[in-house]
Amino acid sequence: MVKLTTLLSLVIIGAVAAEMDAPKFVYHNHCQLTAFLKDVEQSYPNITHLYSIGKSIQDRDLWVMAIGESPREHIPLRPEVKYVGNMHGDETVGREILIHFIYHLVSGYGNNTEITSLLNSTRVHILVSMNPDGFENATRLKQEGQCNNDRGRYNAKGFDLNRNFPDYFEENDKEIQPETRAIMDWLQQHQFVLSANLHGGSIVANYPYDNYKNASKLNLHSKYSPSDENRVFRHLAMTYSLAHATMFQGYPCFRGKVHPHTHYFVGGTTNGAEWYPLKGGMQDYNYIYAGCMEITLEVSCCKYPLASTLEGHWNDNRKALLKFLQQVHIGFKGYILDANGKPIAGAKLFMGDRSVTSTALGEYWKLRVSTGYGFIDLIDASVSKFLSLDSGTYGH
Ligand SMILES: *[C@@H]1O[C@H](CO)[C@@H](O)[C@H](O)[C@H]1NC(C)=O
Ligand SMILES: *[C@@H]1O[C@H](CO)[C@@H](O)[C@H](O)[C@H]1NC(C)=O
Ligand SMILES: *[C@@H]1O[C@H](CO)[C@@H](O)[C@H](O)[C@H]1NC(C)=O
Ligand SMILES: *[C@@H]1O[C@H](CO)[C@@H](O)[C@H](O)[C@H]1NC(C)=O
Ligand SMILES: *[C@@H]1O[C@H](CO)[C@@H](O)[C@H](O)[C@H]1NC(C)=O
Ligand SMILES: [Zn+2]
Questions:
Q1: Which ligand approaches the C-alpha of residue 169 most closely?
Q2: Residue 111 beta carbon below 6 angstroms from any ligand 2 atom
Q3: DSSP three-state, residue 367
Q4: Are residues 300 and 386 in the same domain?
């Protein structure tokens, strides 16, 4: 009897105190990433749920860690948000800081009030690597500290995944890749409200649109291409930029390093097409076709910096990653009901160019700002931009 009690209490202590070590500041290959995610799920079973949204061409799982007070189930009116990293396999910093962000969230739950209230009111989904094949290729073909060649950018069939989505402005005839398809299906399964996609090669928060009508014909002619909810997008981009250690300065990158000669990106943000237009990008797709407000974050000048710099990159982004997700609560939300007060699924709410479809439960979310960072509008688009600064190596 005594023995049984002792055993039981051991088990209970084990369940409560199943703490894991913080991840190290090193690059995690696919096996190590998988092991880390499984470790998190095992150590924090009440607030995490690990699932795969599909496989890369070379059969690697596209793992998503869902984190929240209800990790397995959607709670009515509680918004779903996401981060996606490493879409370009050679842009490795986003991948590693998302690993640290996952640990930050799970280890802070119940101890840090900001984290606890976020996870009690929001479900966070994190796809650490959208292009695991590209990452393996990049880290095999390049050495740490090689900032700017494109090895590993593409998926295993040579497609640029941030040019691979159906495009709102122009026809995109690229064959849709399994990694892209997995995202498109994922967007059907959950109504994501807010999202960011982490890249490298610059330090800036880039907001829609990335393209405009006939941009390809005009051969990469930069042009400001705002959506009808531009004020909200600017607020989201500015929120990240201001909470980041240096992004707000807006300095450009040159040969993998910050080049502080001019405030190149005003406030550390840019409209996508004003920087340079691209066709088939993920952020425009999220917004137009999936009702999710997504921005693109460029989080490091060097795409594959020395692992010894990763802790610094994490510290630069830590606050911003949290502040950004909190913005999902700035608007309003509710149910669309019929005359008898019954929820209507699949109702279309028009918001300028895009329509938001109510969920199966009749829910909708709408982000809103009253004043936002309006002052930035005053000093905007007249600043000239020199696309050739980092010739041949694009960020987003
Ligand atoms: C998970 O939740 C259960 C039930 O609320 C609780 O008994 C258990 O201690 C929790 N486990 C951890 C690891 O927090
Ligand atoms: C809880 O938060 C405090 C203050 O931020 C920190 O010093 C402490 O290590 C945290 N405890 C755990 C178990 O994470
Ligand atoms: C978060 O939710 C948990 C579980 O429902 C609850 O015990 C805790 O008090 C909540 N904390 C906050 C800050 O809302
Ligand atoms: C690896 O990258 C090289 C250079 O970009 C490319 O030619 C090759 O097809 C890639 N291989 C795989 C398996 O991704
Ligand atoms: C785009 O190009 C087509 C065909 O050349 C033309 O008819 C159309 O007016 C253009 N649209 C815009 C907005 O430039
Ligand atoms: Zn990129």
A1: 5
A2: yes
A3: coil
A4: no
Region 136-141 average pLDDT: 95
Give the three-class secondary structure for 328.
Answer: helix
Same structural domain, 165 and 262: yes
Residues 82 and 161 in one domain: yes
Protein residue with its CA nearest to atom 4 in ligand 3: 69
The predicted-structure confidence for 163-179, as pLDDT tens digits, reads as follows 999 999 999 999 999 99
113 lines ligand 2 (CB under 6 A): no
109 located within any domain: yes
Angle among Cα 316, 142, 56 to the nearest 5 degrees reads 80
111 CA closest ligand 2 atom index: 1
Q: How confident is the model at residue 371 (pLDDT cuts 50, 70, 90)?
A: low
| CA–CA separation, 185 and 196 (whole Å) | 17
Chain segment 171-218, per-residue pLDDT in tens: 999 999 999 999 999 999 999 999 999 999 999 999 999 999 999 888
Ligand in closest contact with the CA of 215: 5
- pTM across the whole model: 0.90
pLDDT digits (tens, 9 = 90+) for 151-163: 999 999 999 999 9
- Domain of 321, CATH number, reads 3.40.630.10
Give the whole-angstrom CA distance, residue 282 versus residue 177: 13
Distance 45 CA to ligand 1 centre (A): 8
Alpha-carbon distance 79 to 294, whole Å?
A: 14
Q: Are residues 301 and 346 in the same domain?
A: no
In the set 91, 136, 179, 298, the catalytic residue is 298
Same domain, 267 and 348: no
Residue 19 falls in the annotated catalytic set: no
CB atoms under 10 Å from CB of 130, counted, come to 28
Please say which residue of 293, 313, 329 terminates a domain: 329
**Can you give the residue range of the structural domain that contains 320?**
25-329
